[in-house]
Specification:
The structure holds two protein chains of two kinds.
Chain A: E1 5-7, E2 10-13, E3 19-24, E4 31-37, E5 44-50, E6 53-56, E7 65-68, E8 75-79, E9 88-95, E10 104-105, E11 109-113
Chain B: E1 3-6, E2 11-14, E3 19-21, E4 23-26, E5 32-38, E6 45-50, E7 56-59, E8 62-65, E9 75-77, E10 86-93, E11 99-101, E12 105-110
Parallel strand pairs in B: 2-12
Antiparallel strand pairs in B: 1-4, 3-9, 5-6, 5-10, 7-8, 8-9, 10-11, 10-12
Classes of the chains: A mainly beta, B mainly beta.
Chain lengths: 114, 111
Amino acid sequence: EAGVAQSPRYKIIEKRQSVAFWCNPISGHATLYWYQQILGQGPKLLIQFQNNGVVDDSQLPKDRFSAERLKGVDSTLKIQPAKLEDSAVYLCASRGQGGTGELFFGEGSRLTVL
Amino acid sequence: GDSVTQMEGPVTLSEEAFLTINCTYTATGYPSLFWYVQYPGEGLQLLLKATKADDKGSNKGFEATYRKETTSFHLEKGSVQVSDSAVYFCALQTNAGKSTFGDGTTLTVKP
């Protein structure tokens, strides 16, 4: 079974530029999460999707961050314009319906904003 | 809101030493509790879980018991190995599927 795929693995941009991250969850997983992990901290939830609907985006900075999950499969997280404090690893995770509740994580996309 | 507090690290132990990493949580309702591990250069992966009070999760020699009265889920291992060196994250998940993580504890095991 293929795991959660994310790209790009690394991205370096200047502040005020834009960036997009892509995630393809495990096949059949209805729930998809985007987390931000700043160095030395735990993952912080940005947005949670159930199929193609948003369940929780209360901590998403909506003035600069956006995310979509068209057709309830893969997802894109965009930052525009980026700030220095957006430097972090962006983690995508997915979870199947019901069951254990275990989250399956991708390897993450490391963003550096200069 | 929901929160998870882990003991501050880093933790350095000698091989075969006993390990405890403390974790306490604040949540409404009855969340499920998890420990995730991140080995160097790898993504987060589930180590163990417990879904209700007094449940004990176990895997790879690690154990944690869901203590509702103390809102805790401490991770223990009787004899650590060098290969256990990693970052350990405690997490809770609500019935709505929202998962909240602690800040992680870095464990280094020396031979």
